[in-house]
Amino acid sequence: MLKTKVSLVLVSKNEEKYARTFFKSLEKQTRKPDEVILVDCSTDRTPEIAEPYVDKLIVVKKCGASYQRGIGVKHAKGDVILFTDMDTILYPDWIEQLVKMFEDPKVHVVRGQVLWPEIKKQIPLIGKRINHCNMAYRRHVLEEFPFDPNLNRGDDFDMGYRVSRKYVIYGCPEAKVIHFSFQKHGWENAKSYGNDWIALTKKYKNPYWILRAIYNVFYPIKEKKPKWVLYNLYGFLSAFIEEIIK
Questions:
Q1: pTM for this structure?
Q2: Which residue range(s) make up the domain with 209?
Q3: What is the rounded distance in angstroms from the CA atom of residue 109 to the CA atom of residue 102?
Q4: Bridge pairing between strands 56-59 and 169-179
């Protein structure tokens, strides 16, 4: 039986603070990736730190998670393509557990378990939810459903919406990463999400996306994070106003 070739695609923008810790966890993997591809648009030392650990370092001028992931996929050679973020710590068997799922031929898309230090309740693995800090796809799925280069943070929601119409998104609770994304929650992040909610509404011409945006704006109340609600309100309203005055 031929060994499954695995590509790990990373995207980064100014992850100098987290890069060394991330790559230390990558080095400890019980199953090594066959190639590591990084698509970077940083202005800090991220690419310098990452270069010894990656097989392909692609520097782009345009920043955007969805755009950068699409570039990474085009350069990837693997049968299975994994995604995570550089502000994560990978459990040692992360790759091994994800790849094991693809021994079943009916499995095409897998979502691992994301652990956030800032919140206690984890998002369920089942359903349409995709989170690219812990995802794996067979190559053909990404050829059928390429990343939208016009989105940034919203690619999780967009890909989940599209991919789940054809493929079951399987959960793998054993494939764990610790994600520090909420530590970076702020005005810039919120504005990026706001722009993507508007873009998704225009793309699908469906008010569902506005309702999803409203839910996400106020979701931090459940986690007792009122400051995050203020960030989210700013992001959504500023993006909405920007769209009106275009």
A1: 0.91
A2: 185-244
A3: 9
A4: unpaired
